Amino acid sequence: MNDARTAILERVRGALHGTERAAAPVPRDYRTNPARRPVRPDLLDLFVERVEDYRARVHRCTPAEVADTLATVLRRRRTVVPDGFAWPVPQPVPGAGLTAAELDRIPAVVTTATLGVATTGTLVLTHGEGQGPRAFSLVPDVHVCVLPADRVVLGVPEAVAALDPHRPQTWISGPSATSDIELDRVEGVHGPRELHVLVVT
Amino acid sequence: MSRTFLGTPAFPEAARAALADPQLRRNLAHATGTIRGKRAAVVSELEETGEWEQLRLAGAAIKDQTLLHLDEHLVALEESLVAAGAVVHWARDAEEACAVVASIAHGHGFDEVVKIKSMATAEIGLNEALAAEGIAAWETDLAELIVQLGDDLPSHILVPAIHRNRAEIREIFLREMAGAGRPAPDDLTDEPARLAEAARLHLREKFLRAGMAVSGANFAVAETGTLVVVESEGNGRMCLTLPEVLVSVVGIEKVVPTWADLDAFLQLLPRSSTGERMNPYTSTWTGVTPGDGPQEVHVVLLDNGRTRALADEVGRQALRCIRCSACLNVCPVYERTGGHAYGSVYPGPIGAILTPLMRGVGEDEQVDSLPYASSLCGACYEVCPVLIDIPSVLVDQRAQVVDARRGQVSHVGEAAAMKGAAWAFGRASRLGAVERATGLAGKFLGRRRVDPGGRGVVSRLLGPGGAWSEARDLPAPPRESFRAWWRRTNGADT
Ligand code: SF4
């Protein structure tokens, strides 16, 4: 395959031969546009509104209310709990070492999120402490995500700037969905069909 | 296995066949109309602030800068990927790329792989190539599943089963699922939610047992070696997460220089594509992460005609394309003919330039007819999130087709060819006026085009293709007079 490498790089250079290759600056004013502020005074309100737009369920609570809210949402469902997840749940299943097939038999999972993105209503998981490997928030049918309010940023530029590309990331905007059948939106194909977000203020 | 596009008739004849299918036309009109409405709503949010235009300019500039230094970025991407634990392969063409994927599967003794919808793997005919090697490739995107089970061809980049309605999908599932794995439930209705549930159960079995997945990538970050897949259903996450081995086939134009560059594209793509502020799931991964996801990660960097397109100074901008499919949904030709008529995995306006750019003109009638599969109304350019001037590239490609075919056949005379061209462009500019009057480019919401006016447009649209198909064996008019004529008539009508 080394031949292919050499050949492709040569073709690229050949294709660009005679083309002015001087670097031109990329205009980045989309990041600093003065209109880029929450359309409402409260960033959090915007985040909540946009998450609800995807028909995910948002629960606002104080740190002291997290455990009760989790219990209400999860009911008696068995729940995968990743290492480092700080709150108690009614029916915990320790996440460490679970295979995909085992995950498939557990109805719910709790995780934290690294960031919330207000303008798009997105949760970003980076799969460290409190979040577990990528399969955790994917295979069970109910995903309950706890997000401290101070982790909500304005938009995609702020999120990208804050994230470490060397960590695997999952950006979640509402429950999984398809519009493949006559453009009718159906929530829940392969990912969790139910998404709850606990915003902790 | 899905059929390939080999032997598809040239666009005009294929389009005529598609136009004769009223069900297909209804489905397409509904689908493209719905997506246009959703897109217009979320794009206008950013248009009001001026961000959309700023994002488009940035997106186009990033891609242009990358293409002008593609060799350097590819070498950097390779280095970052290797440093992150990935194995990098290079493939000059479809055959080499398919051979790489097959040999990885064989090396592990796998006789099946799960797949995420990907234009690159469709382009190289990977499923057929793997089948020939005794490896089953299971499509896991709902629409692709419908297409694959129906032994059909995808008709749209974004919603490949747009030509099937719910009743047809139910029948395909009931008939074909059992032969491919877990059968559909007997009491399956044509409710979209029930159909999606049947697909969920059918495919979950495959996700849990698959040892290897094959994906494409929407972006590949040179600086870090990060790959990005943008999706809706979660089948992508399943494929990228559960199997031990992951192979991603990535066109060399997918590279972006830095992680930070993604902040433009992750705004442009979902809004322009599915008409959402953000698509449900975006996955990024950088090589191998111990204890999380695939522990063997391969990336196949694919040329397959991209360097040929890069060499075309007018056409190379087509390589900026982020495959959002917005240009398809605003195209009056596409709305009426669907994707099959283009005879390529890349349908619609972008396909009409990308296919001839990647494959070259003057050899294949089907390819040569594509630059004519347009009315040059300009709606595609208006929506393109990376500002690809498709109409200008189409005109340039037409000139190249004419050049390539010059002197190929007899001498019936310039006048006859010119007559065909005049017919086409005369109607094309008139069509542009019709589209502007009905607000195609601006206000998409609630528009239902089953009106007689719509039909009138269609019959006129078919004309240019028909005229071309009759005229294409004639000697071509000289390039200069063609262009002079084009400038004059275009100027007169607009
Ligand atoms: S050409 Fe532009 S509008 Fe069409 S699919 Fe590509 S990026 Fe989207």
From TrEMBL, chain A:
InterPro entries found in the cross-reference section: FTHF_cligase-like_sf (IPR024185), LUD_dom (IPR003741), NagB/RpiA_transferase-like (IPR037171)
Domain of life: Bacteria
Residue intervals of the LUD domain: 105-200
Record-linked Pfam families: LUD_dom
Gene3D superfamilies in the record: NagB/RpiA/CoA transferase-like
Protein name: Lactate utilization protein C
Species of the source: Nocardioides flavescens
Automatic annotation (TrEMBL), chain B:
Xref: Gene3D superfamilies: Alpha-helical ferredoxin, NagB/RpiA/CoA transferase-like
Lactate utilization protein B C-terminal domain ranges (all copies): 398-489
InterPro entries assigned: 4Fe4S_Fe-S-bd, 4Fe4S_Fe_S_CS, FTHF_cligase-like_sf, Helical_ferredxn, LUD_dom, LutB/LldF, LutB_C, NagB/RpiA_transferase-like
Single biological process term from Gene Ontology: lactate metabolic process
Keywords on record: 4Fe-4S, Electron transport, Iron, Iron-sulfur, Metal-binding, Repeat, Transport
GO MF, any single term: 4 iron, 4 sulfur cluster binding
Domain LUD: 77-302
Domain 4Fe-4S ferredoxin-type: 318-386
PANTHER family: LACTATE UTILIZATION PROTEIN B
Protein's name in the database: DUF3390 domain-containing protein
Lineage per the UniProt record: Bacteria, Bacillati, Actinomycetota, Actinomycetes, Propionibacteriales
